[in-house]
Amino acid sequence: MLKVGVLGAGHLGKIHLKLLQESKEYDLVGFYDADIENAKKVSEEFGYKFFPTVTELIDVVEVIDIVTPTLSHFNCAEEAITKGKHIFIEKPITHSVQEAEAIRTLASKYHVKGQVGHVERFNPAFTAVKDSINNPMFIEAHRLAEFNPRGTDVPVVLDLMIHDIDIILSVVDSEVKNVYASGVSVISETPDIANARIEFENGCVANLTASRISLKNMRKARFFQKDAYISVDFLEKKSEVVRMKDVPENPDEFAMILQNAEGVKKQIYFENPDVEPNNAILDELETFAQAICNDTRPVVSLGQGAKALRVAQMIIDSF
């Protein structure tokens, strides 16, 4: 078991603490939180050991789980890495692309592993169909959320849209060519609603919409590719694959058949993959432990986290 410490005991930090305590991959040593009153409360209520400084916690663990506000990610990661500790760091990886690249360089220099908490990669609705997503040429994603003051210290692009940016970058094997975007601030100092069009070198286009002042929650993505359409509902944990294949000689009388202007006929097949329930946060933490122990590449590497942040920053700059 890997000795792990958690930096940050806010809403998400407490979830991480609970899961790490239960995990068979980790030995939870303790946590640090800058809010002393909150730290004492969490320690008394759940029995986790509270460390008075970041340094004292880093010194006695092998892995540091960084669940602090984004602005402090770099400083926490830098201290952990330079002491030879592996880091799990919540999304977005850092406040700036420069900081993200610096973390990548440090991790390489000190031979430690790092994983970024893009949890939707572990969403069972996505994992059920990701192998079916092959060279998509148009992608549409909607991530709408009811207003919550938590997270409004950053633009909605870094708060919500970055989930879909990472998902899209994981399935499109091409470099970004152009980004066009617009954003509107409604209740926060930074944009609360954003729309972005990402064009890739291979011709793929992704259209993303994110809002944190919606009346209902929605987290859906649709992928269009040659002879197939794939939909993923990250919120309801459902996915569907619609395929078009050549019509057989003797099609079923209830078969759904389309014919184009050239007379080519295609039969439509609907697939609803089995979506196995899971705890995505636990899965991302435990796969990181396995990557450390087996010396393999983490599912969401520091490089991938930096790339998602770079595209997010391109969107923000385009406003």
From TrEMBL:
Domain GFO/IDH/MocA-like oxidoreductase positions: 156-216
One MF annotation (Gene Ontology) recorded for this entry: nucleotide binding
Pfam families membership: GFO_IDH_MocA, GFO_IDH_MocA_C3
Gfo/Idh/MocA-like oxidoreductase N-terminal domain boundaries: 2-118
Cited InterPro entries: Gfo/Idh/MocA-like_OxRdtase_N (IPR000683), Gfo/Idh/MocA_Oxidoreductases (IPR051450), GFO_IDH_MocA-like_dom (IPR055170), NAD(P)-bd_dom_sf (IPR036291)
Name of the featured protein: Gfo/Idh/MocA family oxidoreductase
Native source species: Aureibaculum algae
